[in-house]
Amino acid sequence: xxxxxxxPTKFLVLSDTHNFEFSDxxxxxxxxxxxxxxxxxxxxxxxxxxxxxxxNKAINMIAKFDAELKLVIAGxxxxxxxxxxxxxxxxxxxxxxxxxxxELAIKAMVGPLxxxxxxxxxxxxxxxxxxxxxAAFSIYVxxxxxxxxxxxxxxxxxxxxxxxxxxxxxxxxSIATSPILDHTDIVxxxxxxKGILDWSSQGx
Length: 204
Description:
Elements: E1 11-14, E2 37-42, H1 52-62, E3 67-72, H2 83-87, H3 100-110, H4 112-116, E4 119-121, E5 125-130, E6 136-142, E7 145-146, E8 154-155, E9 159-160, E10 173-174, E11 186-189
Parallel strand pairs: 1-2, 2-3, 3-4, 6-11, 7-8, 9-10
Antiparallel strand pairs: 5-6
């Protein structure tokens, strides 16, 4: 097998922007103009609690980044993007939430506004891309995180969503439907690996 040549490629990684908007008067460290990159990775939590207007706001924010490829996944705060989670929710009157909200959220993330912003919204699994500079890479993505405070895209703590049964830790059950493949170049998830920057402010 021939060795792969290296092509200098710049990645810009974002996560948890939670309705962020650029502002001339903001003291936020993320300001325009943003660094130019070949690939922008947004690792989820575009919004605070979902909502179509918030998804559109996030799309408009990402449009301001200068990158050839903009890969975006959902996070646990992007409620309507999780179909099963949204179908189980109830409103203040106890009635089911409108299932069309899920469809509208998905349409926003793959529709004309997102396309014009250069966004490629990815579902869980492995994807491959080739850039104009010839750089090619595979990327595994997943919006799922261990269950926490009844947010979206959750799996139980005794479950492994990313590995096949023979790869899981003792006492852990594999529920992977799209496991991480060998020789994957990049793994992009909403949560960090276990034991690496994964402590919450409450010490959990």
